[in-house]
Amino acid sequence: MDYGKKTFMEIRFTPAETPFALKILLALILASSLLSHWIAPYLALSAAGIAHLYLWQFATYALIHPLPSAILHLAFNLFLIWTFGASLMERLHTKLFFSLFFGAAAASGLAAWGAMTLFHTPLYFLGSSAPLYALLTAWVLLNPEARLLLFFALPLKARHLLLGLIGFNILIDLSRSNWVPLFAYLASVLFGYLFTLAACRIRSPFPFLMKFENWVLRLLERLSHPRPKGVRHTKIYDFKSGEPILSDDEFMDAMLAKISLYGEDSLNPEDRKRMQEISEKKSLGKKL
Fold first, then answer.
1. How far is CA 127 from CA 71, 252, 268, in A?
2. Shortest CA distance to 123 belongs to which of 45, 55, 199?
3. Which residues in 203-226 are b (16+ Cβ under 10 Å) and which e?
4. Residue 238 has pLDDT above 70, yes or no
5. Out of 70-79, 139-148, 259-268, which region has the weakest mean confidence (pLDDT)?
6. N or C: which end of the chain has fewer CB atoms below 10 A?
7. Longest dimension (CA), the chain
8. Which domains does the chain have, with CATH numbers?
9. Nearest residue to 2 via CA among 86, 105, 110, 125
10. 5: buried, middle or exposed (CB in 10 Å: 19+, 13-18, 0-12)?
11. What is the pLDDT of residues 33-44, one digit of tens each?
12. Which of 66, 55, 204 is nearest to 128 (CA)?
């Protein structure tokens, strides 16, 4: 189900199908939460636990909600993981989805542990909210034009809802000096953003991030297709630049790939001029 092409009137509140792997994750969170009274001291994240080298806590904390006090929070998070997770699995597939979920859990756990150490907080940190922020961030990047119904009544674009949700939680945590969840949730949003940018090679709908994203995409392209350092096999070289001269077809293919990856603004005046000359040459050839 591609939410990105639907209006808010067409969006379903529940997925048509639930992948089996997602059912396992939801069942694991529910089962761990039901046993939270007994297993939280070992699986929830704490500075004392990490000091005792319980390193698994960086991931397992995301599977536990303290019951019965957090039953509504658990139900709400399970619903969001179910609905948005099913959509993400269609786009990212299972391996990437779980890499996103548990990668965000680890990044958030490290940030939360850092805040615990910095502010001397002896409390536990647990709950699936941290990786859920990464799932929401990834979903918005993949469906930038989707509209959601806030409180099932007020239509908002997904991007605006995400920014509002992040801003609201930052203000709440700052006003209450809740440094641990603040650090964790910001780390999760950042991880979800960078993960989706790198894994899917897509830009966000936020113009102020364009320069950074172009730089990241260029870096990833260079790392994926490094230029050979040996002798080039092109037979003809430009006398001034020393660069190989591409044929018209090779040049057009390279420019179209460049536009697809970095946008039309990445073309310099020389590129545009040669593309126009090639197009005119081909048009004249067809007429003849």
1. 11, 51, 50
2. 45
3. bbbeeeeeeebbebbeeeeeeeee
4. no
5. 259-268
6. C
7. 83
8. 3-205 (1.20.1540.10), 227-287 (no CATH)
9. 86
10. exposed
11. 999 999 999 999
12. 66
CB of 131 closer than 8 Å to CB of 105? yes
Question: What are the backbone angles phi and psi of residue 157, rounded to the nearest 5°?
Answer: -65, 145
Task: Give one word for 268, left, alpha or beta, with left for phi > 0 and alpha for psi -120 to 50.
Answer: beta
The answer for 6, left when phi > 0, alpha when psi is -120 to 50, beta otherwise, is beta
> Tokens for 44?
């929830």
Summarised one tens digit per residue, pLDDT across range 9-28 is: 344 556 778 899 999 999 99
User: Would you call 240 exposed, middle or buried from its count of C-beta atoms within 10 A (0-12, 13-18, 19+)?
Assistant: exposed
Pairing verdict, β 147-150 and 154-157: antiparallel
